[in-house]
């Protein structure tokens, strides 16, 4: 923002209280801004409430995107060291059960080691130590990523809201209709007709970003493919309580899983996502849930498949080229957007970088490749996004 206030005392709004908006509001308030977090739905009704929430920079190929996710992983770990409780420091065990997975694993591990990422080789006996019950005869190869883990997103959001409150920020349930930036800041029009005024606004509206920003005259293409099995859609099944002791995040060809609290596990099978769509009928969800339960029981040598309590379809906020979008949208630098897949991993990093850019007007080099202007007319990337179907993808 050129003509308004900068730094401490700036009056800011954040639109959207998912993982990204909540973390950003907290960080801005702790930086000294007067922050109001505006959210139109009940908490966690967006994507952050339906996420595998694996914290990693495991399969992020473009170097700048790898670095950004690494920053997120490190900030989750730093949060744990500072006494926060949302990050579960349990490591990730990747187990190759097939030739196809082996062929993918070797070059990925080589790339990660060359980048300095922590990767440990694990033999079949050690795999059993990390994952009691796994049928060792199935294991072709395994590696462990000791720094990775998963995030309990409701706790992450609650911690962010507590930080926001402690720093004097406010939360308000309100649908934001549109933003009108002008020379002195931004006029925020709420759905009920009320108008609010801020020095700058951070837009963290996840999968609703395209339609929300279009009402304010900005173009950021997110979630354009709504077909069955589109890259944005993914099933997540939750088991009932089971007598399995597997603290880690586990990824395999047939099933990924991680603890989901109170003896439950969250299951995912990327190949099954070809049928994923928010309107998937209950017969499809039940079939997918039963198949995931069968695969989980099979790899762990359980006599019976676990009960499935819920099969949800999550909707990733997926920018048109699959990569993070972060930066100012207007020349006056008063409307800022942050939308991305891997948003649970990235939330604390984007929060810190957005705070640097919005509050202190310091461009973050980490975000140089992720600016929204890459979608401006005539320069839109055409590569599109490939769906996550192969082991280790997400
Ligand atoms: C199946 C699946 C698996 C995933 N696995 C992982 C993973 O393993 N690791 C990882 O890091 N990420 C993962 N993700 C992605 C991650 O969950 C998302 O990137 C992240 O949750 C996005 O957070 P957000 O805050 O941007 O969006 P959201 O959580 O959707 O929050 C956006 C908020 O904006 C609000 N909003 C929208 N419009 C308005 C408006 N006009 N006015 C007021 N409020 C508004 C919405 O109500 C919503 O609460 C996964 C996603 C899916 C679907």
Descriptive notes:
The chain has 394 residues and is α/β, with parallel strands linked by helices. 28% of the residues lie in helices and 24% in strands. The protein folds into two domains: 1-89 and 149-223 and 318-394, FAD/NAD(P)-binding domain (3-Layer(bba) Sandwich), CATH 3.50.50.60; 90-148 and 226-315, D-Amino Acid Oxidase, subunit A, domain 2 (D-Amino Acid Oxidase, Chain A, domain 2, 2-Layer Sandwich), CATH 3.30.9. It contains eight helices and 20 strands. The strands form five sheets. A six-stranded mixed β-sheet has the order 9-2-1-13-20-19, with helices on one face. The longest helix has 19 residues, at 63-81. The protein is globular. The two termini are 36 Å apart. Bound molecules: flavin-adenine dinucleotide (FAD). Flavin-adenine dinucleotide (FAD) binds next to helix 1, strand 2, strand 14, strand 18 and helix 8. Residues 15-21, 38-41, 45-48, 50-54, 175-176, 204-208, 212, 234, 236, 314-317, 339-345, 394 line the site of flavin-adenine dinucleotide (FAD).
Poorly predicted regions are none
Count the domains. 2
H/E element order? EHEEHEEHEHEEHEEEEEHEEEEHEEEH
- CATH class category of the largest domain: Alpha Beta
Q: Which structural class best describes the helix and strand composition?
A: alpha/beta
Helix content: 25-40%
- CATH architectural type of the largest domain: 3-Layer(bba) Sandwich
Write down the overall geometry: globular
Structural Rg: 21 Å
Total number of strands: 20
Strand content: 15-25%
Fill in the CATH topology of the largest domain.
Answer: FAD/NAD(P)-binding domain
